[in-house]
Amino acid sequence: MRVAIFAETFLPKWDGIANTTCRLLEHLERRGVESLMFAPEGAPAVYAATPIIGEPCFPLPFYPELKLAQPRHGLGEELAEFAPDVVHLINPALMGIAGLRRAKELGVPVVASYHTDIPGYLEKYNLQLFREFVWTGFRWIHNQADLNVCPTPWIQEQLRKQGFERVDIWGRGVDCELFNPSKRTHEWRERLTDGNPGAPLLVFAGRLALEKRIDVLRPVLDEVPAVRLAILGDGPEREHLEEMFAGTPTVFTGKLDGEDLAAAYAAGDIFTFPGENETFGNVVQEAMASGLPCLVAAHSGLRDRVRNGVDGFQFEPGNSAQLATLVRWLLTDIGFRENLAANALDFARSQTWEANLDGLLGRYEELIAHTRTTGTRAMNAGY
Known about the structure:
The protein folds into two domains: 2-172 and 352-381, Glycogen Phosphorylase B (Rossmann fold, 3-Layer(aba) Sandwich); 181-349, 3-Layer(aba) Sandwich (Rossmann fold). It has 14 helices and 16 strands. It has helices at residues 16-30, 75-82, 94-106, 118-124, 131-142, 153-161, 186-192, 218-223, 238-244, 258-266, 282-289, 320-332, 334-349, 353-374; strands at residues 2-7, 34-40, 46-47, 50-55, 57-60, 63-69, 86-90, 110-113, 147-150, 167-169, 201-205, 228-232, 250-254, 270-273, 294-297, 312-315. Helix 4 packs antiparallel against helix 5.
């Protein structure tokens, strides 16, 4: 099997999409699958065993950290020379349109994966006038794919309401060897509590961006004065957030990865995530794998991750008072909190990348077999 991938975003920008794409490329190498990827320029020339062809790109005006690629004329020749059996469009936009067109010319089946709630982001940046235009563009691209995949059933339902066709689930795994409670150390507890290791510690992880709604955490520190907060990550809102949280028991760590990130998760008591536009939330599964109960906003793909009263709770989006009540409850009822943490850990350990990605490869193989048997791309045959 030969797989060509068109990724709208990749390294050096690190986010949930890059994390998932890296895992996919690593898995393709382990399974002996030949692959080629087209990505924005600046990406490494090779990742795992996959050669990467960089394309010129420009920053999205309202979100400069996200760059859109401008595919070159010669891209089609490079793809034809590789002769893929299937093409995967990751979060397709301009690069995805180029990949879709070339795949059609070659008669190759197309999988398109939906990763980012750009229409939801537009509201956060006061650009809601463009929301329907963006949905129309996404719908047009995705409905030309033979198979669309998204991370959770809740997102699947939202896409279907928007008129997306042939939508299936491609979930996410978590590395439970890296992220686990054994990574808890006194040194990281000291660091994240600013020298107060006996104080209860809330943890947030993610890009420090407007859509993550980190501001929702600020009133919690007033409502529950004994608690401390560690904010793991970096991003365009960091300076503003440091001003907002000035004078509170909050530690900003900057970007963490690898063992440092694992140790930071494990040092906490409760994971909090107020973002309302997550399609999945890799950081939540990483926190669960680290043995933390999770409190998350109820309007996102996280609705399918965190089970109320089982491994955490969902709170009304933007409702700091409700979040503070949940924090106070879990800090008071230690036994209940430990039970939630144990359930979170059990759930995370059932979410392996291997099974998740083998399932995706299985879908690739089904589409390839259908195309070879019928001589027709699956979408044209009502697959």
